[in-house]
Design brief:
This protein is 37% helix and 16% strand. With 356 residues, the protein is α/β, with parallel strands linked by helices. The protein has a single domain, classed as TIM Barrel (Alpha-Beta Barrel). The protein has an eight-stranded parallel beta barrel, surrounded by eight helices. A two-stranded antiparallel ribbon has the order 6-7. Helix 3 packs parallel to helix 4 and helix 9 packs parallel to helix 10. The longest helix is centred in the C-terminal third of the chain and has 23 residues. Pathway: Metabolic intermediate biosynthesis; chorismate biosynthesis; chorismate from D-erythrose 4-phosphate and phosphoenolpyruvate: step 1/7.
Length: 356
């Protein structure tokens, strides 16, 4: 027998549908495309200071339940109708979760929450949810984690994120250069903003790298670079960085690097010391900075779901409480609405001060 030197650790290989086949199966119509393009343009205007609203990326830590995700989207649309003159609300629709060791990796990787890993069905769930969000008039945001799966759904996103664990990855930086949506780069887990600033510059440049085509074939693409990268402050393992002094230092670092002195702040993770119930207090501090006239802060991120807290996955979907996170704990719906109203009031107060 020949000596085996390949696939030694491969137990199974299952085909995925070609990206184009899934797009044809679940297509975006012209109305959805126009909505996503308009939402991206509005996001760019906020990031660039042409629109004085706040960008607020708000929603579940991760999507595990399509039904509650779409109920959340419908509720968010109603709030957006009321607060849209002050806030651009973009729903957090995260399908992939980076894990420090092990755990549930997200709807794309394990849609049944049972360890079976039907990734093809997970990708279908992702497209269905994003298409329905667009039909509801709700812009969607997600973290770009895997290097292959974006071909199946990324054209439906209004905003993307590169997380603290991948912000130093050359592969994620060059992938971000190809994405059509604005991309936020989070500071590293140690709190350093330098890696994120470097990533913004790298993603803005042209790149040439291998990927898969919509037909599933290996190919090389050349990108023009993504000019809409920006910094997201998410705190660090040793403390938060949402306060005015931290914002000032971060925006000065952006300016020194030749970038606009504007950023987004994540109210969760290190900024809440991993305590979901502290998110409203973080948002209140940010609202006060905005109300006082700060234009350095152009957006926020909030982890929120229909029901506050979190729950463990024990027997797949059996026994799960509807509308409650299975990953990071989230604030509940009522608390979310109160935070959004406070942020809208802060924008209005800043406007009043500017016109006085």
């Amino acid at each position: 027998m020949p000596t085996q030197i390949s696939d030694i650790h491969i137990a199974q290989a299952d085909p995925l549908p070609e990206p184009r086949l899934l797009r044809d199966e679940l297509p975006a119509g012209e109305a959805e495309a126009e909505f996503i393009a308009a939402s991206r343009a509005a996001t760019r205007n906020i990031l660039g200071g042409l629109d004085d609203r706040l960008l607020v990326v708000v929603g579940p830590c991760s999507i595990h339940e399509p039904e509650s995700a779409l109920e959340y989207a419908a509720r968010l649309r109603q709030v957006a109708d009321r607060l849209g003159e002050s806030l651009l609300l973009v729903m957090r629709v995260y399908f992939e979760k980076p894990r420090t060791r092990m755990g549930w990796k997200g709807l794309i990787y394990d849609p049944g929450l049972d360890g079976q890993g039907d990734i093809g069905e997970g990708l279908r769930h992702a497209r269905r949810i994003l298409l329905e969000c667009a039909r509801l008039g709700v812009p969607a945001a997600s973290e770009i984690l895997d290097l292959v799966t974006p071909q199946y759904y990324a054209e439906l996103l209004t905003w993307g994120a590169i997380g603290a664990r991948t912000v130093e990855s050359p592969l994620h930086r060059q992938m971000a250069s190809a994405l059509s949506a604005p991309v936020g780069f989070k500071n590293a887990t140690n709190g350093s903003v330098g890696a994120a600033i470097d990533a913004i510059h790298v993603a803005a440049q042209p790149h040439r790298f291998p990927t898969i085509s919509l037909e599933g074939r290996a190919m090389v693409i050349t990108t023009t670079g993504n000019p809409d990268g920006h910094l997201v402050l998410r705190g660090a393992s040793d403390g938060p960085n949402y306060d005015a002094a931290s914002v000032k230092r971060a925006t000065e670092a952006l300016e020194k690097s030749g970038l606009p002195p504007r950023l987004v702040i994540d109210c969760s993770h290190g900024n809440s010391n991993k305590d979901y119930s502290r998110q409203p207090a973080v948002a209140a501090d940010i609202a006060q900075q905005v109300a006082s006239g700060s234009t350095r802060i152009c957006g926020l991120m909030i982890e929120s779901h229909l029901v506050e807290g979190r729950q463990d996955i024990v027997e797949g979907r059996k026994g799960l409480r509807y509308g409650q996170s299975v990953t990071d704990a989230c604030i509940g719906w009522e608390a979310t609405v109160a935070v959004l109203e406070q942020l809208a009031a802060a924008v209005n107060q800043r406007r009043a001060g500017a016109s006085a």
